[in-house]
Structure formats: C-alpha cells, structure tokens
Write a structure and sequence with these properties.
By secondary structure, the chain is an alpha/beta fold. It has one domain: Rossmann fold (3-Layer(aba) Sandwich). It has a six-stranded parallel β-sheet, sandwiched between helices. Helix 3 links the parallel strand 2 and strand 3. Helix 1 crosses helix 4 and helix 2 packs across helix 7. The longest helix has 18 residues. It is globular.
C-alpha cells in the first residue's frame, strides 16, 4: 500500500481508486464530480516531452468534458505558458509548477488518463507508473512508449492504452477522444484498466528476457 494515497486499491478492487479521485479533486480544487475523467501529466516541461503539442491542442482539449492536472517544472518558456493558464479555468484545470513526489503519486492514483505526447522517449517510466496505478496512458508511439503501450486498434485483446503517430495536436486529440469515448463505456474501460494494472513491468521479468536473449545469442555463436 502507498501511504501517500487516500485509500489502497488493486485490479480486483477499484473502490480505493475512486476514493483517491475524490481526494485529488478536493486537494487541487477541481469540481467534485466522480463521472468526469481526470487527464494528467506528471512531467519535465520541455519540448522533448511534447509540451508544444499540448499547448497547440489546449483550446480543443479544455472544450472536452474532462479535468486536467499538470505537475512539473522545466524550460522557462513552457513554465511561462502554463503559468498563464493557471487559474484560467477554476474547477477544471490545476497547474502545479513544482515537483512533489507524494503529490505525483496521488495524481497517478486519482486520475483516469495520463498524457505522454513525447517527441522521443528511449524508455519512459511515466506510462509504466500510470499503468500500475490504474491510469490509462495516452502516448505518442515512439521508443519505449511504443514498446510498452498497445492501442486497441493494434490488438483489442492486449490493449492497455492509446497511442498516436504524428507529433501534432490533431493526432493527440484523436487518440484522446477515443480514450474519452471508451471511458464512457464502463465495462470495457474497467477491463482496460485492470489489464494495465496486471502488467508485469518488473525488473525480474526484464532480467529474464535479457537472459533469454543472451542465451539465444550464445547459441547462434555456438558458444
């Protein structure tokens, strides 16, 4: 159990996640509505992380039925842009230009969707943390994000999030709209959430895969 959270939860019991959502809405001054999806970013504010794509999509994004939370610090230009946004939509948007590890965990646990529109991402940990906390990633299909997140269009049976190809506002919003549509369909949404929470992203599994690859390489070289 995570001591930073309002309540514990797991794949088979998501009541605690709903409690975490209520607590997050109270803490950040969001409208206390359990039905509205919370879309979040916990990130370094720089161009590599696709902040320019979010800024480009901003007007369309806040027209959707959703709440938006951002936590992070970084490049001055992005800090200034989000500082101007802060307070512009009370009850719907919470901009937190700092970093607080405990708050980050509460955001992961209390939100429904996690945006990672990275320009490039060799590995990426945010999407894996989001999965463990039952928060569905919406990512740009690049690097480690492409390796770890499967879109329903690729494989409905293995899907654990949503992805898009082009680093553009239109592509981001298309993927986000598909995610928001599924959110309204409770049974398939919960199936997606539970599948993501059950994913084994541990170092133990990674180590086993590397050992297997090494073994095969040695066999090919007749070592």
């Amino acid at each position: 159990a995570d001591a930073a959270l309002a309540a514990p939860f797991g794949p088979e019991n998501l009541r605690g996640k709903r409690a975490c959502k209520r607590a997050l809405q109270r803490e950040l001054g969001l409208e206390p509505d359990p039905t509205v999806p919370i879309v979040t970013m916990v990130t370094r504010l720089d161009t590599q992380k696709g902040l320019d794509t979010v800024e480009e999509a901003w007007r369309d994004l806040v027209k959707r039925k959703l709440q938006f939370v951002l936590l992070g610090t970084g490049e001055e230009a992005h800090m200034k842009r989000f500082a101007r946004i802060e307070g512009s939509r009370p009850g719907q948007v919470s901009i937190n230009l700092s970093f607080d590890e405990a708050l980050a965990r509460r955001i992961y646990a209390g939100s429904d969707l996690f945006l990672m529109p990275s320009r490039y991402e060799p590995c990426g940990l945010g999407q894996l943390i989001a999965l463990r906390y039952g928060t569905v990633p919406v990512v740009r299909r690049t690097g480690g994000l492409a390796d770890t997140i499967t879109d329903p269009r690729e494989s409905p049976r293995r899907a654990n999030g949503f992805s898009f190809e082009e680093p553009s506002a239109a592509a981001l919003m298309e993927a986000l709209d598909r995610a928001l549509d599924l959110y309204e369909r409770r049974r398939p949404w919960l199936t997606l959430v539970r599948r993501g929470m059950s994913r084994d992203s541990s170092w133990a599994r990674s180590a086993e895969r590397y050992v297997e690859l090494y073994r095969r390489a040695m066999e090919m070289r007749d070592v």
